[in-house]
């Protein structure tokens, strides 16, 4: 059986696993990315993981999901990472060439959409927008059933959209919500803390969360008008609120849409949490390498 090593390189955590040709994870684990130590240390960590796992598994290729815009032809990192030092310009195939294996690299949100689309009704949606709210905001597009990269491989970098003299992710990411909440309650550590207060109608937190939802749905409405997707998938830790989060989004979004759109915008929450990057990375690997002949 041919097996593959798949990585999901996040700003905080590095997830990795052994995956089969039919996308079953036989093994998976997680460690810290330690991005503050730089890209060279990260590459050595990837090599070490490969060396350890190759003693037990017959690894035929490596699939990588990562933050930042990626030239998927050359595997070069095109944009800096806020979490991984000296990431800009890293070429994964060059850095890992001594492993002598096929290597694919894809942006993390694009990997997420490749994984998540399989949970949607078959052939129902041709144009899909996936968007994640977390440390920043990222998105990915499927247009006419094809993953869209854009001219410079950066299609979907919606977090960089300009809004109110700031950026979309500067106003509507989970990080931004926590930052604004800390101004009134310095002890707040994360989004869970914020929504715990919001759910008990804390008078200082409610207007902050309402403004957050206003900003989030302003950006989302703009993308709906421009892209007119059949379906929207929302991911990120904030979606752990489940249907409550979805209802809050709909409530703030609908007043911003034409009457013609109301009740017709289909939105779902990402179903795969921890494994979407690893599985999506391998789906992309299979799209560029013929795994049957390796």
TrEMBL record:
Belongs to the ROK (NagC/XylR) family. PANTHER family: BETA-GLUCOSIDE KINASE (PTHR18964:SF165), ROK (REPRESSOR, ORF, KINASE) FAMILY (PTHR18964). The lineage of its organism: Bacteria, Bacillati, Mycoplasmatota, Mollicutes, Acholeplasmatales. This is ROK family protein. SUPFAM superfamilies: Actin-like ATPase domain. It comes from the Bacteria.
């Amino acid at each position: 059986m041919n097996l593959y090593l798949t990585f999901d390189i996040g700003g905080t955590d590095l997830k990795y696993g052994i995956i089969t040709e039919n996308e079953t994870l036989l093994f998976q684990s997680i460690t810290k990315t330690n991005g503050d130590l730089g890209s060279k240390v990260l590459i050595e960590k990837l090599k070490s993981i490969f060396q350890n796992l190759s003693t037990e598994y017959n690894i035929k290729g490596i699939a990588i999901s990562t933050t930042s815009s990626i030239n998927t032809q050359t595997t070069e990192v095109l944009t800096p990472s806020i979490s991984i030092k000296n990431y800009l310009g890293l070429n994964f195939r060059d850095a890992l060439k001594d492993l002598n294996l096929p290597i694919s690299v894809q942006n993390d949100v694009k990997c997420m959409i490749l994984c998540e689309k399989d949970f949607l009704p078959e052939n129902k949606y041709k144009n899909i927008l996936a968007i994640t709210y977390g440390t920043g905001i990222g998105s990915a597009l499927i247009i006419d059933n094809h993953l869209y990269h854009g001219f410079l491989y950066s299609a979907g970098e919606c977090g960089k959209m300009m809004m109110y003299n700031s950026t979309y992710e500067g106003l509507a990411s989970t990080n931004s919500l926590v930052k604004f909440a800390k101004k009134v309650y310095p002890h707040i550590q994360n989004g869970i803390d914020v929504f715990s207060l919001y759910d008990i109608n804390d008078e200082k937190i409610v207007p902050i969360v309402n403004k957050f939802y206003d900003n989030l749905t302003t950006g989302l409405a703009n993308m709906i008008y421009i892209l007119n997707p059949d379906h929207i998938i929302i991911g990120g830790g904030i979606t752990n609120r489940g249907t409550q989060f979805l209802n809050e989004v709909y409530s703030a979004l609908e007043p911003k849409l034409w009457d013609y759109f109301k009740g017709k915008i289909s939105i779902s929450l990402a179903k795969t949490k921890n494994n979407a990057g690893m599985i999506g990375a391998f789906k992309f690997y299979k799209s560029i390498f013929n795994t049957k002949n390796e």
